[in-house]
Amino acid sequence: MPPHNFNELRTAIRAFAQARDWEQFHTPKNLVMALSVETAELLEHFQWLSPEQSTRLDDQTKAEVAQEIGDVLIYLARLADVLDIDPLQAAFDKIELNALKYPVEKSKGNNTKYDKLQ
Amino acid sequence: MPPHNFNELRTAIRAFAQARDWEQFHTPKNLVMALSVETAELLEHFQWLSPEQSTRLDDQTKAEVAQEIGDVLIYLARLADVLDIDPLQAAFDKIELNALKYPVEKSKGNNTKYDKLQ
Amino acid sequence: MPPHNFNELRTAIRAFAQARDWEQFHTPKNLVMALSVETAELLEHFQWLSPEQSTRLDDQTKAEVAQEIGDVLIYLARLADVLDIDPLQAAFDKIELNALKYPVEKSKGNNTKYDKLQ
Amino acid sequence: MPPHNFNELRTAIRAFAQARDWEQFHTPKNLVMALSVETAELLEHFQWLSPEQSTRLDDQTKAEVAQEIGDVLIYLARLADVLDIDPLQAAFDKIELNALKYPVEKSKGNNTKYDKLQ
After folding, report:
1. How many other C-beta atoms are found inside a 10 Å radius of the C-beta of residue A109?
2. CA distances from B20 to A113, B30, B67 (A)
3. d(Cα B32, Cα A56) in Å, to the nearest integer?
4. Separation between Cα atoms, residue A54 and residue A52, nearest integer Å
5. Residue A2 pLDDT > 80, yes or no?
6. Is B46 helix (H, G, I), strand (E, B) or coil?
7. Is residue D51 within 8 angstroms of chain A, CB to CB?
8. Residue B115 DSSP class
9. Is residue D54 a contact partner of residue C27, using CB atoms and an 8 Å limit?
10. How far apart are CA A64 and CA D75, in angstroms?
11. Assuming Cys at both sites, which of A44, B45, B80, D4 could form a disulfide with C88, CB separation 3.0 to 4.6 Å?
12. Residues 62-91 of B with CB under 8 A from A
């Protein structure tokens, strides 16, 4: 079986929504709310962990976190689909912009936001 | 040029972080917070729009929304990378689970959450 | 019984945390994550509703929404407490700032963000 | 001057919205999105801080955080107002529920979620 790719994911989610007649609910406004809810469910797993604990999850938590990452990606892909935006292209474009906002010489070892970088 | 894929994205983000010595900041706890912040910046574009307006963004807003989608995907890919989780696999696994939670015959045209489905 | 006030709430939450020896978990970083999680649980109730539906909740949903509003306020009050910030004073100060950012004559019937107001 | 109270805040926000003819935008669905956005702006200040750093903010950051806490409280109070929910009462009711979900003897020094408490 070939590895999964993003187009395949978009197609699978689209079919899932169509089979359930859910396209009526999938406005961008609703989908971005669903994306926020799923992101918070992912966040919830980490809220009481120390940063160090967050780097070594037990197997049960890791499996639950993987499911939440799946949910976030599903809603992100669905939102991008209904908006006719290519999320991978958007990410690569943003990396180029970030390289300009965070030049290596100024940002090295430094997490200051670009608008406060000197 | 071949189309972008997820592995390529992960590699590009990893290189970006390494070049800036930012791996020290990239704990899962911190990254999931950054993901939440970017998701909310995406949400912000839609907060005062009607659902109908959200389906037909002007070009300027669509370009800004694409950038935020890029940011969300970047942090999601980075979080998955440091956790050693394959986000595409996680999404496909979740679609299978969702198909069980939301059988077509019960969910058709119905946005009720699975734990309240009859 | 006199009506509840904010100081009373802060005191009750502080006592709740102390009795359970939870102060060790209540760093601002952790509390702001918990606040985000509760806010998303509130958001979840509205994700698939139309704006119009969101104005007339059934009794069951309204009761659940009230609980989530309670949770959000609890974590906001607790966060403000550990940071030694007075949230009511902060809100009144912010209203004054907002009055400058959104002058009535420019903002009337207009939800444009202040940095794009003409 | 008497100390501020919640009713006064609700009244001030209501007047602010009315003067700008913003009631048309203030559906619960829109307001809960705005609340989420403000919560994330608060979260953003803490994303790269260690838990320990988050307990000792510099004066500039503390002032910015106070403003964001003000914004979160404004939108929470406004949302509760349009839903005709008393947020302080909701918080006290929730504390009572939480006392049942998290009995002192089981929760002492333990941040386990109630549904996993033994």
Report:
1. 9
2. 13, 16, 21
3. 15
4. 5
5. no
6. coil
7. yes
8. G
9. yes
10. 32
11. D4
12. 62, 65-67, 69-74, 76-77, 79-80, 82-83, 85, 87-91
The 10s digit of each residue's pLDDT in B69-107 is 999 999 999 999 999 999 999 999 999 999 999 999 999
Residue C96 near chain D (CB below 8 Å): no
- Asked whether the beta carbons of B105 and A79 are under 8 A apart, the reply is no
Q: How far is CA D31 from CA B111, B114, D81, in A?
A: 22, 26, 11
Q: On the CB side of C50, how many CA atoms lie within 13 Å of its CA? A: 5
Write down the ipTM of this complex.
Answer: 0.95
The single-letter DSSP state of residue C56 is: S
Number of Cβ atoms within 10 Å of the Cβ of A50: 17
A74 to each of A7, A41, A44, B88, B106, how far by Cα in Å? 12, 14, 18, 9, 21
Rounded CA separation D26/D17 (Å) = 8
Give me the torsion for CA of B46, B51, B57, B63, rounded to 10°: 40
CA atoms within 13 A on the CB side of A88: 17
How far, CA to CA in Å, does C47 sit from each of A11, A63, D27, D30, D90? 23, 26, 13, 10, 22
Q: Do B73 and A88 touch (CB under 8 A)?
A: yes
Measured distance CA(C19)–CA(C11) in Å, rounded: 12
E strands in B40-117: none
Question: pLDDT tens-digit profile of B97-109?
Answer: 999 999 999 999 8
* Coil vs helix vs strand at C74: helix
Q: In this complex, is the C-beta atom of C110 within 8 Å of any C-beta atom belonging to chain B?
A: no
Distances from the Cα of D37 to the Cα of A113, C22, C39, angstroms: 18, 28, 10
Q: For chain B, how big is the Rg over CA atoms in Å?
A: 18
Q: What is the pLDDT along chain C (118 residues), one digit of tens a residue?
A: 456 799 999 999 999 999 999 999 999 999 999 999 999 999 999 999 999 999 999 999 999 999 999 999 999 999 999 999 999 999 999 999 999 999 999 999 888 888 887 6
Task: Give the sign of the dihedral formed by CA D8, CA D11, CA D12, CA D13.
Answer: positive
Angle at D82 between CA D79 and CA D88, to 5 degrees: 60
Asked whether the CA dihedral A12, A13, A18, A19 is positive or negative, the reply is positive
Q: How many residues does chain B have?
A: 118
Q: Cβ(A26)–Cβ(A17) under 8 Å? A: yes
User: H-helix or E-strand containing B17?
Assistant: helix B6-19
- Contact across the interface for C72 and D76, Cβ inside 8 Å: yes
